[in-house]
């Protein structure tokens, strides 16, 4: 036996059982789930523990090598530890999946170096990846913790913004309600639930991107040790359907004949252990006739190209049909005025060809979920989803069970960014649980996770802009085309959003726009933060900078000349009225001040030091909530519990965006219930009111309305109960911090006393946003739909981003020295939460701008690990980030708020590209920037030579 200590307790490992890694031993044998498995490749740091006081990745160590070692996991760190407390003070967590590993790495650093610099911290934590982008807060927290540990007299403190008035919760930077649990590893993600007697699943995928599956032989796999059964299409329950999809049910649960891409499942093996399932999956045999694949847009559009979508499947959801013609998934058009005439009358025409690449979300939590039969006999699913009710309804069709008999249990997502709006392993664990009566779980490997879920579309864009000499925009001609892969997924909605915002936040009287999605045999493309608009912003904002350069007009001034404002129509034709929050020009005013007063002097100083540096700006606009026609609904439920606490039940799921905190602030503002007296129940479909998916920056925006309405009624009924029980008129009574007070502020009773005396109050409110319209091709130019009714989107967020870059003339590598974003996201409910979202979005989009390229060759991904995706890490994030806000009520939003989670990613790519051009004169027309290192280096050297540096 191998003996060592874990969190001060002696444990033993039997090496004769298997050659287990420390990670599995900690999680599976000791049931300490704060240590996470994110990559299995030593690349994410989520599994970091202390071994003899040093930070180590537990996936790298075999237990048999640890005789006598002292192991500390996050569970062994007391809550009052300076690092834990500093992480809480700095409001570090977002999704929280990576945080325990970062805490352990931070403690390990301080054990070795009690006085680290920012550079030391970034270097030490480089291996710890966070896709939410919490790096600046972690660095601040580590510096604070180090000062506390050293016993310094002067200790730094994090002081968040406070925009509140008096004791109002609106505008107050309350700490996240889930922060401490995430920091200490107590938050449970789907893989942390260890249900007794579980079976473990492993997928068998289509081995070719295009072919005919003639047969599947599972006999050898079924005989393998520990195997319970092997699922194939024959195991779809009677009456169930072998297909699913978010807009159209066009994807097979199990492929039966025509293989269209490598995402598809042929079989799933369930066994007593994960290792047995993995080994047995290798024994499944397939008889396949491989077919030539269609892997490019050009090949897909050839007259003799194989037709990829199934012509017999047109099972539409929300009116999105399977395909329009041939391999065209969807085409959208918008036009206004006489664009040909306007171009002929233009003084300056700018014509640019732009491209962006496919990208992978890279959340640290691998895909998967668990299913079991609950105590009521319902099929229950533990899953990290963005759309619990939508997922439930899709599963109901597959397994032929009424939706009401399916219990979807949402647990926090370890990152999502739009990609967890789709089913991945859900159907397979459900079928397995129904077949066996035992809990079934699937936890994908990182390679399988990357293979399973859809990616961000790459766009090919042609922008033609016509201007007057004054800078006034006269005409636009925009053509966008995207490879959506083998199935529809979110492609139509992505392209419709991309088209809606492809003009940038500018008014143009004449334009012709077209956006086309194409089917190929490549991996499926879907939803990803920025959802269709991040790509087209690269086109519009770079084209505007080219125009500014050729017209000799300052880039910010050119944007100001053409900025949308109240009284003008958006490119969709929707009128911007007093009922909309439109503060885009204010973001430009702030940006102009920032550039003139700080960034130009910064660049001049850098250039004086012999560095190649430049300033770039780019603006952005993006809808808040989905719009475009589908119904958008949500509900809220308040109930006084017997112990005097209040349950607040919503379908709004949590994936790091912080909506639960902001909604709780709204609830406390309305009801008077104390901040700490809520228990939030979220996403459990048997307990919460129906609600749509959490996407499109709409968590706080959409659920804010029913929270306010239900809260008002709840408070009114509580006061009526106080009147009934205490014999005091409800008139003049109020609730403050869960205490019922009279008009003079004297206590009458409190919630605990009312509950103890039999008060029963339960209020449930269902809410639906006003109807919206799909994009009308003529942008409602004929006003057939009255202007006041033509609402394509409910409201829009705006931003202008300013960046400073420094170029290494030897390598052509670009470092972002500074980012400052000026944002109109309405009233800030929780300013620090908004800042956290914007910081994280800017950091996430930095690698999108500089490095990310999820390349696919002949249907297969070229990169199947996290490490090869080249994401932003501690040592590659921008050196300085600042955030600025208009903080003006949006008339459409709850308490004047609107979302901010996506507006922060839109402008990074073009702003960095524009800054590179300002620095050395090299114009980037294709992302990522670092694919042009050779050309950038040559331009930088030329600039140095010409400027005598």
List keywords for this structure.
949 residues, 4 domains, globular, Aldehyde Oxidoreductase, domain 3, seven-stranded mixed β-sheet, Aldehyde Oxidoreductase, domain 4, 28% helix, Ubiquitin-like (UB roll), alpha+beta
User: What is the residue-averaged pLDDT?
Assistant: 95
Per CATH, what is the topology of the largest domain? Aldehyde Oxidoreductase, domain 4
What does the largest sheet look like? 7 strands, mixed
CATH-defined architecture of the largest domain: 2-Layer Sandwich
Please report the distance between the alpha carbons of the first and last residues. 66 Å
Name the beta content range: 15-25%
Helix content: 25-40%
Whole-number tally of structural domains: 4
Poorly predicted runs: none
Query: Compute the gyration radius: what is it?
Result: 28 Å
Structural class of the secondary elements?
alpha+beta
CATH class of the largest domain: Alpha Beta
Which strand order does the major sheet show? 8-12-6-19-16-17-18
> Count of DSSP helices?
23
CATH superfamily of the largest domain: Aldehyde oxidase/xanthine dehydrogenase, molybdopterin binding domain
Characterise the protein shown here.
Helix content is 28%, strand content 22%. The chain has a seven-stranded mixed beta sheet with strand order 8-12-6-19-16-17-18, sandwiched between helices. The chain has a five-stranded mixed beta sheet with strand order 2-1-5-3-4, covered by helices on one side. Strands 14-22-21-20-15 form a five-stranded mixed beta sheet. The protein has 23 helices and 35 strands. It folds into four domains: 2-165 and 180-187, Beta-grasp domain (Ubiquitin-like (UB roll)); 192-291 and 362-452, Alpha-Beta Complex (Aldehyde Oxidoreductase, domain 3), CATH 3.90.1170; 459-574 and 585-627 and 777-946, Aldehyde oxidase/xanthine dehydrogenase, molybdopterin binding domain (Aldehyde Oxidoreductase, domain 4); 633-768, Aldehyde oxidase/xanthine dehydrogenase, molybdopterin binding domain (Aldehyde Oxidoreductase, domain 4, 2-Layer Sandwich).
């Amino acid at each position: 036996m191998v003996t060592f200590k874990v969190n001060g307790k002696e444990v033993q490992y039997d090496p004769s059982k298997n050659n287990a890694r420390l990670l599995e031993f900690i999680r599976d044998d000791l049931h300490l789930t704060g240590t996470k498995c994110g990559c299995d490749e030593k690349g994410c740091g989520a599994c970091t523990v202390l071994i003899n006081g040093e930070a180590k990745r537990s996936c790298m160590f075999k237990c048999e090598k640890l005789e006598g070692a002292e192991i500390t996991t996050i569970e062994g760190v007391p809550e009052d530890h300076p690092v834990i407390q500093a992480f809480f003070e700095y409001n570090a967590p977002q999704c929280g999946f990576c945080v325990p590993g970062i805490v352990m790495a931070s403690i390990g650093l301080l054990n070795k170096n009690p006085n680290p610099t920012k550079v030391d911290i970034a270097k030490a934590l480089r291996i710890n990846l966070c896709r939410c982008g919490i790096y600046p807060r972690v660095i601040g927290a580590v510096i604070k913790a180090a000062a506390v540990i050293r016993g310094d007299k002067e200790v730094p403190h994090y002081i968040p913004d406070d925009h509140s008035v008096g004791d109002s919760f609106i505008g107050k930077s309350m700490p996240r309600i889930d922060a401490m649990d995430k920091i200490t590893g107590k938050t449970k993600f789907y893989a942390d639930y260890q249900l007794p007697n579980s079976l473990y699943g492993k997928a068998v995928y289509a081995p070719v991107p295009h072919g005919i599956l003639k047969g599947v032989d599972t006999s050898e796999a079924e005989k393998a040790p520990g195997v319970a059964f092997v699922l194939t299409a024959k195991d779809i329950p009677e009456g169930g359907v072998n297909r699913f999809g978010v807009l159209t049910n066009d994807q097979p649960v199990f492929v039966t004949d025509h293989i269209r891409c490598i995402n598809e499942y042929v079989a799933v093996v369930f066994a007593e252990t994960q290792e047995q399932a993995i080994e047995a999956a290798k024994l499944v045999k397939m008889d396949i006739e491989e077919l030539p694949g269609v892997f490019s847009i050009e090949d897909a559009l050839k007259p003799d190209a194989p037709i990829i979508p199934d012509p017999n499947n047109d099972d539409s959801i929300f009116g999105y049909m399977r395909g329009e013609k041939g391999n065209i998934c969807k085409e959208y058009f918008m036009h206004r005025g006489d664009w040909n005439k306007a171009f002929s009358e233009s003084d300056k025409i700018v014509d640019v060809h732009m491209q962006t690449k496919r990208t992978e979300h890279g959340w640290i939590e691998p895909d998967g979920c668990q299913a079991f039969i609950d105590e009521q006999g319902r099929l229950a699913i533990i899953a990290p989803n963005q759309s619990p009710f939508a997922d439930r309804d899709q599963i109901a069709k597959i397994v032929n069970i009424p939706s009401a008999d399916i219990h979807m249990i949402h647990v926090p997502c370890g990152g999502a960014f739009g990609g967890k709006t789709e089913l991945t392993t859900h159907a397979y664990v459900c079928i397995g649980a129904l077949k066996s009566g035992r809990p079934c779980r699937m936890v994908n490997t990182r390679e399988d996770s990357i293979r399973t879920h859809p990616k961000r579309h790459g766009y090919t864009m042609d922008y033609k802009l016509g201007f007057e000499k004054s800078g006034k925009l006269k005409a636009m001609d925009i053509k966008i085309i995207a490879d959506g892969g083998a199935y529809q997924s979110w492609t139509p909605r992505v392209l419709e959003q991309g088209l809606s915002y492809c003009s940038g936040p500018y008014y143009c009287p004449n334009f012709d726009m077209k956006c086309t999605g194409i089917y190929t045999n490549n991996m499926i493309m879907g939803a990803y933060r920025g959802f269709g608009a991040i790509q087209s912003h690269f086109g519009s904002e770079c084209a505007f900078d080219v125009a500014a350069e050729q017209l000799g007009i300052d880039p910010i001034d050119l944007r100001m000349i053409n900025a949308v404002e109240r009284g003008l129509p958006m490119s969709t034709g929707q009128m911007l009225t007093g009922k909309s929050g439109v503060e885009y020009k204010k973001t430009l005013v702030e940006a102009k001040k920032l550039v003139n007063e700080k960034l130009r002097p910064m660049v001049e100083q850098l250039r004086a030091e012999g560095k190649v540096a430049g300033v770039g700006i780019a603006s952005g606009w993006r809808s808040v909530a989905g719009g475009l026609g589908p119904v958008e609904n949500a509900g809220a439920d308040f109930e006084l519990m017997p112990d005097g606490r209040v349950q607040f039940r919503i379908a709004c799921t949590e994936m790091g965006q912080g909506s639960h905190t902001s909604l709780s602030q709204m609830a406390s503002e309305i009801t008077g219930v104390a901040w700490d007296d809520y228990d939030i129940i979220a996403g459990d479909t048997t307990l919460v009111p129906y609600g749509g998916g959490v996407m499109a920056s709409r968590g706080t925006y959409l659920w804010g309305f029913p929270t306010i309405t239900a809260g008002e009624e709840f408070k009114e009924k509580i006061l009526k109960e106080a009147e009934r029980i205490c014999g005091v008129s409800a008139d003049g009574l109020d609730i403050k911090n869960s205490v019922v007070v009279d008009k003079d502020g004297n206590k009458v009773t409190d919630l605990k006393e009312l509950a103890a005396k039999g008060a029963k109050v339960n209020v449930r409110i269902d809410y639906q946003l006003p109807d919206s319209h799909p994009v009308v091709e003529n942008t409602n130019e004929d006003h057939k739909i009255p202007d006041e009714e033509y609402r394509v989107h409910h409201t829009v967020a705006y931003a202008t981003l300013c960046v400073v870059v420094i170029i290494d003339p030897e390598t052509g590598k670009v470092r972002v020295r500074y980012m400052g974003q000026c944002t109109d996201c309405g009233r800030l409910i929780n300013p620090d939460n908004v800042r956290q979202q914007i910081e994280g979005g800017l950091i996430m989009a930095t690698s999108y701008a500089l490095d990310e390229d999820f390349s696919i060759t002949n249907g297969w991904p070229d990169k199947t690990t996290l490490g090869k995706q080249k994401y932003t890490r501690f040592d590659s994030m921008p050196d300085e980030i600042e955030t600025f806000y208009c903080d003006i009520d949006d008339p459409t939003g709850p308490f004047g708020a609107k979302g901010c989670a996506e507006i922060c990613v839109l402008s990074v790519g073009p702003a960095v590209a524009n800054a590179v051009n300002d620095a050395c004169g090299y114009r980037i027309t294709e992302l990522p920037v670092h694919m042009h290192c050779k050309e950038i280096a040559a331009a930088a050297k030329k600039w140095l030579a010409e400027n005598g540096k």
